[in-house]
Design a protein that fits this description.
The protein has 16 helices and 23 strands. An 11-stranded mixed β-sheet has the order 8-7-6-9-5-10-11-12-13-14-15, sandwiched between helices. The protein has a 6-stranded mixed β-sheet with strand order 16-17-21-18-19-20, with helices on both faces. Strand 10, helix 8 and strand 11 form a beta-alpha-beta unit. The protein has 548 residues and is of the alpha/beta class. The protein has 3 domains: 73 residues, Udp-n-acetylmuramoylalanyl-d-glutamate--2,6- Diaminopimelate Ligase, Chain: A, domain 1; 231 residues, UDP-N-acetylmuramoyl-L-alanine:D-glutamate ligase (3-Layer(aba) Sandwich), CATH 3.40.1190.10; 158 residues, Protein-Tyrosine Phosphatase, Chain A (Alpha-Beta Complex). The chain is globular, with a radius of gyration of 24 Å. Helix 15 packs across helix 16.
C-alpha cells in the first residue's frame, strides 16, 4: 500500500508519498467556478513519451490471435475522434452504434490496430489494420491501457471516493490535505474538473473512461505528481472505467436512491459500490458507520476497513465529538481508536459536511498523515465549486448555489440552511430529464416542505418535456399538507425562476439555487446552451438591486 511517508522511508519505485517540501494547506484547492477551457484536442491529455509496445505482445496479453505485422502501439483510446498516431482504437459495442462503425475515422487519424469484439471484427478488418478480437473489449481495455502506459498508477498514492452524496466535497477536502504536504504535486479527478498540478481540465463525466484515466495517470507521473484523489461513480465500477487501477485508500460516504435509470434497484446499486472494496480495486477502505449501507459494507468488504462516525458512534474507529455548527461551517473534535484527538473544522456548513470532513481526515490518516496535520489542512480548504457556493453581489441576504439533485441532498441542504437564519428560505429547484423519474415527486415535496418559497423549474430537461418533469415535481409538492407547505411557484424558465426567488428575498433571508451547482450549460432537447447558476443568480441580484 502506498502511504504518506518521508522520502527516506519510501521503498521501491518512486511512489506517491508525503515528503518534506510542504505547501500551504488548501493552497489552490478550489476555484470560484469551473471555468476551465475545453481540451485543445479530443480526449484526455497524453504523456509526451511512451515506450512502444509490440502488437504481438499486446495480443499475447489479451489472448487474441497475434497479427502478422503492424506498427507498435504508443497509446489507446475508445474515442475514434481522439485517436492519435500510434494508438490502439478500442471499438466497443454501444446502445445505438458500434465503435467499429467509426474504424475508418480511427485509421485515418493514425491508429495502428483495432481492439473489438466478434460483432465488430469484420468492419474493423475492412480498414486494413491489424484487428485484436476478444469477447468483451471493454472489460480488457483498462488493464491494457495501464500496461501500454507502463502502469503509471503504481507510482501514485491513489485515494478513491464513492457514495451517493459528498463525493466531490470529500475529494476536494482530501486533495487539500494532499497539497498541504505535496504542494502542487497532486492530482484531482472528478465531477467538476480534473487537475494535474495547476492545470485544470473540464470533466465530461465523474470518472473518465479507462483509457483516458490511465492516460491521465501517465501524464501525472510524467509531471511529478505524487498523489491523486478521484471520485469513483457506480457507473465507473460497473462499466470498468477504473479497471487497471488499485486504490491505496477507498472511501465510502453513504448510499441513497439515485441512478435508478441505470441500476435495477438499491441492491444492484449497493453491489456496484461494493466492487470498490475488493482486492482487485483497493487495498484498504474507509467507511461511514452512520450509514446503513456503510454498516453492511463493513461486514461484506473484501479489504481491511476503518470506520468513521460524524454522529459520535463509539463503535467507529474515528468519530466526531463536541460538534458545534455555525452558518459558515462547523467545529468538532476528532477522536481516534487509540484515544488520539485533533481539533477540526468543516469549511462548509451542515451536518453532512461534518461527515465529509471527517471522511477526508480519516482517509488522510489511514494514508499516513498525522491527525492534526490532516485536520488543519482540510480546514484550510477555501471551498468547493458549486457546493453551497456563495454569490455575493452586495445583497443583504445570503445567496448560494448547490449541486443538490436528489431528495436526501435537497433535504440536507435546506435543513442546514434553516439553522443559519431566522429569515425565510427561497429555493429554486428542478429535476433532470432522462434520469430517475421516481425522485421527482419526493424532490418537489422536500422543497415545498422545507423552503418558505419553492420555485420549481427546469434543470437539464434533455430529451424530455420540461412541463412533464415539472408536473411530477408539483404532484409531489401537492402531497405535502397545506399547513406544512411553503409557497409553491412553477416557472419552467430557469433564469426567470431564479429572478422570482431573488425578488422575494428580504434582508436576513436565504436564496438557494439547487440542482446544477458547478455546471455551465443547460441541456434542452439535445442542445446545450450556456447557463451557469452562479452567473445567472448574480445577474438577477444586481438587476434587483438596481430597481430598489
Amino acid at each position: 500500500m502506498t502511504t504518506i511517508t518521508s522520502d527516506g522511508d519510501r521503498p521501491g519505485r518512486d511512489r506517491g508519498s508525503f515528503g518534506p517540501d510542504r505547501g500551504q494547506p488548501g493552497n489552490l484547492t478550489a476555484v470560484p467556478k469551473a471555468d476551465q477551457s475545453p481540451l485543445k484536442q479530443p480526449g484526455a491529455p497524453r504523456p509526451s513519451a511512451v515506450r512502444p509496445k509490440a502488437l504481438a505482445e499486446l495480443a499475447a496479453r489479451l489472448g487474441a490471435e497475434p497479427p502478422a505485422d503492424g506498427a507498435p502501439a504508443t497509446g489507446i483510446t475508445h474515442d475514434s475522434r481522439a485517436v492519435r498516431p500510434g494508438d490502439v482504437y478500442a471499438a466497443l459495442p454501444g446502445a445505438r452504434f458500434h465503435g467499429a462503425d467509426f474504424a475508418v475515422q480511427a485509421a485515418d487519424l493514425g491508429a495502428v490496430a483495432i481492439l473489438t469484439d466478434p460483432a465488430g471484427t469484420e468492419r474493423a478488418a475492412a480498414t486494413g489494420l491489424p484487428v485484436l478480437t476478444v469477447d468483451d473489449p471493454r472489460a480488457r481495455m483498462g488493464a491494457l491501457a495501464a500496461w501500454i502506459y507502463d502502469e503509471p498508477g503504481e507510482d501514485l498514492l491513489q485515494i478513491g471516493i464513492t457514495g451517493t452524496s459528498g463525493k466531490t466535497t470529500t475529494a476536494y477536502l482530501v486533495e487539500g490535505g494532499l497539497r498541504a504536504v505535496h504542494g502542487k504535486a497532486t492530482g484531482l479527478i472528478g465531477t467538476v474538473e480534473s487537475r494535474i498540478g495547476d492545470e485544470r481540465i473540464k470533466s465530461e463525466r465523474t470518472t473518465p473512461e479507462a483509457t483516458d484515466l490511465q492516460a491521465l495517470f501517465a501524464v501525472m507521473h510524467e509531471r511529478g505528481v505524487r498523489s491523486v484523489v478521484m471520485e469513483v461513480s457506480s457507473h465507473a465500477l460497473v462499466l470498468g472505467r477504473v479497471d487497471g487501477a488499485v486504490f491505496d485508500v477507498a472511501v465510502f460516504n453513504n448510499l441513497s436512491p439515485e441512478h435508478m435509470e441505470f441500476h435495477t434497484d438499491m441492491e444492484d446499486y449497493f453491489q456496484a459500490k461494493a466492487r470498490l472494496f475488493t482486492p482487485q480495486r483497493s487495498r484498504v477502505g474507509v467507511v461511514n458507520l452512520d450509514d446503513a449501507y456503510g454498516r453492511r459494507l463493513v461486514a461484506e468488504a473484501g479489504v481491511p476497513i476503518t470506520t468513521f462516525s460524524a454522529e459520535g458512534d463509539l463503535d467507529a474507529d474515528w468519530r466526531a465529538t463536541d460538534v458545534e455548527t455555525g452558518p459558515l461551517g462547523s467545529t468538532f473534535t476528532v477522536t481516534g481508536p487509540k484515544g488520539e484527538t485533533a481539533r477540526a473544522a468543516a469549511p462548509l456548513p451542515g451536518p453532512f459536511n461534518v461527515a465529509n470532513t471527517l471522511a477526508a481526515i480519516t482517509a488522510l490518516v489511514i494514508a499516513g498523515m498525522d491527525p492534526q496535520t490532516a485536520a488543519d489542512a482540510v480546514a484550510a480548504v477555501p471551498g468547493v465549486p458549486g457546493r453551497l457556493e456563495g454569490v455575493d453581489a452586495g445583497q443583504p441576504y445570503l445567496a448560494v448555489v448547490d449541486y443538490a439533485h436528489k431528495t436526501d441532498a435537497v433535504e440536507s441542504v435546506l435543513r442546514a440552511l434553516r439553522k443559519t437564519t431566522e429569515g425565510r428560505i427561497h429555493a429554486v429547484l428542478g429535476c433532470g430529464g432522462d434520469r430517475d423519474q421516481h425522485k421527482r415527486g419526493p424532490m418537489g415535496a422536500a422543497c415545498a416542505r422545507l423552503a418558505d418559497t419553492a420555485v420549481l423549474t427546469s434543470d437539464n430537461p434533455r430529451s424530455e418535456d420540461p412541463l412533464a418533469i415539472l408536473a411530477a415535481m408539483l404532484n409531489g409538492a401537492a402531497e405535502v399538507p397545506a399547513h406544512e407547505r411553503g409557497h409553491v411557484i412553477v416557472e419552467p424558465d430557469r433564469a426567470a425562476a431564479i429572478a422570482i426567488a431573488v425578488a422575494r428575498a428580504e434582508p436576513g433571508d436565504i436564496v438557494l439555487v439547487a440542482g446544477k451547482g458547478h455546471e455551465q450549460g443547460q441541456d434542452i432537447a439535445g442542445v446545450v446552451r450556456p447557463f451557469d447558476d452562479r452567473e445567472v443568480l448574480r445577474a438577477a441580484i444586481e438587476k434587483d438591486q438596481e430597481q430598489l
